[in-house]
Write a structure and sequence with these properties.
The chain is of the alpha+beta class and about 210 residues long. The chain has two domains: about 35 residues; about 130 residues, Hotdog Thioesterase (Thiol Ester Dehydrase, Chain A), CATH 3.10.129. It has five helices and seven strands; from the N terminus they run H-H-E-E-H-E-E-E-E-E-H-H. The strands form two sheets. The chain has a five-stranded antiparallel sheet with strand order 2-4-5-6-3. Strands 1-7 form a two-stranded parallel sheet. It is globular.
Length: about 210
């Protein structure tokens, strides 16, 4: 097609139109390629890991890490994960679920792992796991977990579309499937969804 155009160029106007056509032609296929590339991403590619030690100024009267301090650390790890997936600015939309299983004593080495479990239009659910490390053996013990929701936005604060997630492991699949139920429950409780439309939640009671 392009060879035919060049053979039939007879004047400057035809040359200009041909160049314009070629630029449009290439831009169109470049756009299709970019859309295909951003269509699906792997959950593991969004993994963010933060490791830090608990200092005396970050603890309560019992010398255990403040809950609020831990939530802030989890929020930071989650935002990095969401940003890696979306490649955009992200803002925290909600903290959907937090479980404090064990206390974290002063001096503990805390590792926080965050990974996008599912992406919707512009929002992303991020699962955050918290571990402490045994000083002698190096073994990790899970002490907390939480589920955060982030929204990708542009520099004006308007939501932008993000890529879908493809789970690979059994745990990623479990969290991926549960994310839609959690989203529907959140929408239902906030009055933004009718009960009849919460199909994933209804399926739990029909099984």
């Amino acid at each position: 097609m392009l060879g035919y155009l060049f053979k039939n160029i007879k004047n400057k106007e035809s040359l200009f139109l041909s160049i314009l056509f070629i630029k449009t032609y290439l831009s169109y296929f470049n756009l299709l390629f970019l859309k295909k590339c951003m269509l699906i991403k792997k959950s593991k590619d969004s993994l963010a890991i933060l490791t830090d030690v608990v200092l005396p100024g970050e603890t309560n009267a019992l010398n255990n890490l403040f809950g609020g301090e831990l939530l802030a650390r989890m929020d930071r790890a989650g935002s990095i994960s969401a940003q890696r997936h979306s490649r955009n600015i992200v803002v925290t939309a909600s903290v959907n679920h937090v479980v404090f299983r064990k206390v974290i004593p002063v001096g503990s080495v805390v590792t926080i792992e965050a990974k996008v479990s599912r992406a919707f239009n512009s929002s992303m659910e991020v699962y955050v796991d918290v571990w402490i490390e045994d000083r002698k053996t190096g073994d990790l013990t899970k002490v907390n977990e939480g589920i955060y929701t982030f929204v990708a936005v542009d520099r004006l604060g308007s939501p932008v579309k993000v890529s879908a997630i493809k789970p690979e492991t059994d745990l990623e699949t479990e969290r991926f499937e549960g994310a839609l139920r959690r989203k529907q429950l959140s929408l239902l409780l906030s009055g933004r969804m009718e009960a009849k439309d919460a199909t994933e939640l209804k399926a739990l009671f029909e099984e």
